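User: Here's a structure from my thesis project, written as structure tokens. My advisor, Dr. K., wants to see whether a designed sequence matches the one we expressed. Can you design one independently, without my sequence as a hint?
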């Protein structure tokens, strides 16, 4: 019998050997931790569909950010749920807004933490859509004007990165122009460049009370069937001045992450969204999966697909596992 000269199993035999030949590595440096900010003080309200996640008042959000930083997590991504909503989401650009307060508080407590801010209107509008509506349709250009106001307000409060997420045509260019005109040219833009109209967002919409009151977002978020369109969207955002591009969701769209990575030489982020988190937590709670292995395997898969950074609700949990 002819036995093989090369035996791949040789380098899998021990953990030390496996470490030596490991092609992809996961690090706490890869993580961005999302936080949901609400009015009040001392608020730490559990989100029922996202076990372990909370709606947080500014003081509590600051505590969570500080703990995350102590675990080595370099960045948080802030979402705001205002006390009052209106047709245009005007609370988004008020200097006294909930996110603006959270930015200032976190930067004071943890000055070296990178504070990113989701820059959209679905949490702020009474209709739940990502901008201004005209006769039931999203008015792209009117929404851009408001987006420009919002990102300048976040920059003024001390944000390091603004993250326009509404999939509006020209949203990166509008943000870059407004930031530069107001002398915030140092503030970076992380564009939700390929954001798909996905069923994985359900728990998030409960968390921020942003479900559309009528219709849906398929008219501006991407069709899950399309790959080439994602590369075009990302290319447009890079041309308009994006510093980081994103694919969202993550698990069901890792082929998109790879396609973008192969075509675009820019930092790439992917967002492991609320539905992905909820599925893992529910399966783990029922004893159907090994949570530690599944969390780490899932995050590693995102890195392997080409993501340079990952927005994940599992960031603190994974950070602790990486310390073992």
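Assistant: Designed independently from the structure alone:
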């Amino acid at each position: 019998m002819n036995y093989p000269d090369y035996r791949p199993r040789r380098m899998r035999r021990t953990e030390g050997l496996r470490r030596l030949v490991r092609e992809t590595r996961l690090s706490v440096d890869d993580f961005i931790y999302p936080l949901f900010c609400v009015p009040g003080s001392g608020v730490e309200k559990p989100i029922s569909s996202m076990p372990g996640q909370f709606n947080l008042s500014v003081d509590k959000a600051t505590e969570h950010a500080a703990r995350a930083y102590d675990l080595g997590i370099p960045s948080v991504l802030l979402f705001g749920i205002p006390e009052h909503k209106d047709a245009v989401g005007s609370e988004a650009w008020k200097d006294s807004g909930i996110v603006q307060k959270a930015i200032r508080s976190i930067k004071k407590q943890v000055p070296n933490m990178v504070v990113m801010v989701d820059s959209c209107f679905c949490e702020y509008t009474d209709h739940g859509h990502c901008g201004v509506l005209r006769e039931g349709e999203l008015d792209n250009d009117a929404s851009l004007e408001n987006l420009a106001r919002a990102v300048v307000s976040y920059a003024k409060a001390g944000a390091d990165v603004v993250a326009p997420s509404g999939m509006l045509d020209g949203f990166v260019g509008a943000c870059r122009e407004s930031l530069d005109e107001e002398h915030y040219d140092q503030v970076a833009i992380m564009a939700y460049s390929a954001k798909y109209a996905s069923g994985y967002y359900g728990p998030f919409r409960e968390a921020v009370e942003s479900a559309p009151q009528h219709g849906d977002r398929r008219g501006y978020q991407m069709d899950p069937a399309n790959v080439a369109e994602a590369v075009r969207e990302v290319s447009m955002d890079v041309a308009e001045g994006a510093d980081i591009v994103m694919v969202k969701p993550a698990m069901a769209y890792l082929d998109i992450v790879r396609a973008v990575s192969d075509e675009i030489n820019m930092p790439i982020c992917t967002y492991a969204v609320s539905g992905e988190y909820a599925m893992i937590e529910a399966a783990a709670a029922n004893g159907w999966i090994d949570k530690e292995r599944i969390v780490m395997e899932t995050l590693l898969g995102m890195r392997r697909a080409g993501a340079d950074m990952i927005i994940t609700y599992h960031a603190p949990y994974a950070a602790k596992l990486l310390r073992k």
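When you compare it with your expressed construct, this may help: The mean pLDDT is 93.
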